Amino acid sequence: MKRVLITGISGFAGSHLAESLVRKKKYEIYGTVFGDGYQPVGVPKHQLVKLNLIDREATLTLIKKIQPEWIFHLAALSSPAKSFFDPRETLTNNIEAQVNILDGALGDKKIERLLVIGSAEEYGQVTENDLPIDEKVNLNPVSPYAVSKIAQDFLGRQYFLSHQLPVIRVRPFNHTGERQAPLFVVPAFAKQIAEIEKSKTEATMKVGNLKSYRDFSDVKDMVEAYRLAMEQGKLGEVYNLGSGQAYQIERVLTELLLMSRVKIKVVTDPKRWQPSDVPKLVADSGKFKRLTGWQTTIPFSETLTRVLDYWRKQI
Amino acid sequence: MKRVLITGISGFAGSHLAESLVRKKKYEIYGTVFGDGYQPVGVPKHQLVKLNLIDREATLTLIKKIQPEWIFHLAALSSPAKSFFDPRETLTNNIEAQVNILDGALGDKKIERLLVIGSAEEYGQVTENDLPIDEKVNLNPVSPYAVSKIAQDFLGRQYFLSHQLPVIRVRPFNHTGERQAPLFVVPAFAKQIAEIEKSKTEATMKVGNLKSYRDFSDVKDMVEAYRLAMEQGKLGEVYNLGSGQAYQIERVLTELLLMSRVKIKVVTDPKRWQPSDVPKLVADSGKFKRLTGWQTTIPFSETLTRVLDYWRKQI
Fold first, then answer.
1. DSSP three-state, residue A121
2. Rounded Cα–Cα distance for residues A52 and B123 (Å)
3. N or C: which end of chain A has fewer CB within 10 A?
4. Is residue A146 within 8 angstroms of chain B, CB to CB?
5. Residue range B248-269, pLDDT digits in tens
6. Pick among B127, B147, B237, B277 to test the A interface (most A CBs inside 10 A)
7. Is some CB atom of chain A closer than 8 A to the CB atom of B146?
8. Is the same domain home to A98 and A142?
């Protein structure tokens, strides 16, 4: 049994990763939880620890106590849109937590792999020529969140270079699924549709920018990539993770509306636009696919159906 | 008269910049001071404000009150070596101060230019093929300080893209002169020589890694580049600043020892080695030179003489 620590285990990607590892029966899973979140099925409750990762002493003590062989550091403030309202909050939270995890891992004699999660948002406003985006494309961030991810990413690189800490870095493109917060686009749409279906009164839906293109994959495919990165990733290296297919947000909305049981009117809400946004992000994940054989396996329409059904049950 | 705010005005580059602007008689200069530092000649005392830039409210209030047209944001924890002892301190200080200055500038109706100071250390461990280093070379930081500068640099870019804030970014290579703290290599050598000359007893000098190559310029040339960047730099862009000439640290030491009035023995001190260091940094400043005509004007041997004379007076 490999001893694994997942930070943010009750969060979106964290809970999917935990449940996917539980099914493989090869991992002893510990997790950090912040606030009241979802409890992943199959992880014993006493292996979940309430912890704010910016509490440095508590974080270092926990890692020393658990002595994990793998650390998946998934906990982060993860909304580009929200980061505009308090840039300092997103920056300091994400960066301090990353430093504490890295310093904690330096004191962990059992550590074999530490996964640092960057983001496609690090590339930000790329030019058409740069598409699809490989790891050499220049970074051009357009949100404080994106800058916080650049700092996390390069901290991972620096601790590898300075201390030979066995860090693997990934830059996931958009991924969605059950339990993603409705401040992200797919659950935001799905939740509103589920509400409208239920109430049968107000049949108007508010949307932001529909013109952008994003590379969506299913969270279940993404967390499998995280596991493969730990097994086969080269130390210090960075890997883009995405399907390689771009969907316009407008098409995502259309597909979801086709699944709706009622007729819905769509209006644009200026409050749902960010000060700056990225027109198109598509991954070239060739470096990772050649190394590991990873492929996305779940068609996006299937993911959308699952997310809508999830929100129908929540509402 | 242009109204100028210099953060870190009592620091090394800050004080040289202030005194150089005073001599041009075209600037009304305000500055922030942290702790007790050098007071730049010619700047009225009531225009110097004691302030810790991580105090967000105080920083925003100050900028609102002064309404500077130019902000040179020079204040930072600036030692790569020191950043290893408390990575979080250097990261959070430099990044929080940068966010506060950027948010302050967003509320400054008079703002025309804001200078964000990165560092050659952002490039870090480059390959021989990348030398001399232009702005397109991949970043490969090897100290927490370097990561903090990457974050500052990209925050400047992000505020330009998101809010059209008139940010100019520079990545200065090594520069030295009077008042640089003796934890940097040139004043570290000069101070020890001055001490040995004075005491006439202990004639042994402790040194760290002598094999690295660095691109040194005089701080007086560097602060002139900062002023030119404000006058002529393109908004949002980044410019490397350096002489284009690499000096091995060993040669710097030899030149200084030749100026010494006593014979000195040199011993290597392992405590003066960083966990990771950069073997060679040489600037390609072509982008900035073609735009502004800037050139370094002060021969390095002259700078070394001045620094040694400065420390002879201090000891």
1. helix
2. 32
3. N
4. yes
5. 999 999 999 999 999 999 998 8
6. B147
7. yes
8. yes
Q: How far is B162 from chain A (nearest CA, A)?
A: 5
The mean pLDDT of A227-237, rounded to a whole number, is: 98
CATH number, position A269: 3.90.25.10
What pLDDT was estimated at residue B176? 98
Confidence of residue A277 (pLDDT cuts 50, 70, 90): confident
Per-residue model confidence (pLDDT) at position B201: 67
Q: Compute the average pLDDT of residues A296-310.
A: 98
Instruction: Tell me the C-alpha distance between A150 and B150, whole Å.
Output: 8
Range(s) of the domain holding residue B197: 185-212+246-281+301-314
Quote the pTM value: 0.96
Q: Total domain count for chain A?
A: 2
Task: Encode pLDDT of A4-41 as tens digits.
Answer: 999 999 999 999 999 999 999 999 999 999 877 799 99
A159 and A234 both lie in a single domain: yes
Q: Domain check: are A161 and A260 in the same one? A: no
Judge if the upstream peptide bond of residue A132 is cis by omega within 30 degrees of 0.
Answer: yes
| B47 and B84 together in one domain | yes
- Rounded Cα–Cα distance for residues A94 and A88 (Å): 10
Question: Which chain A positions have a beta carbon within 8 Å of B157's beta carbon?
Answer: 140-141
Task: Report yes or no: A282 and A247 within 8 Å, Cβ to Cβ.
Answer: no
Interchain CB contact of A53 with B (< 8 Å): no
Minimal CA separation from A21 to chain B, in Å: 32
Whether the pLDDT of residue A209 is over 70: the answer is yes
- Burial class for B49, CB neighbours closer than 10 Å (0-12, 13-18, 19+): middle
**Cβ contact (<8 Å) for A154 and B150?**
yes
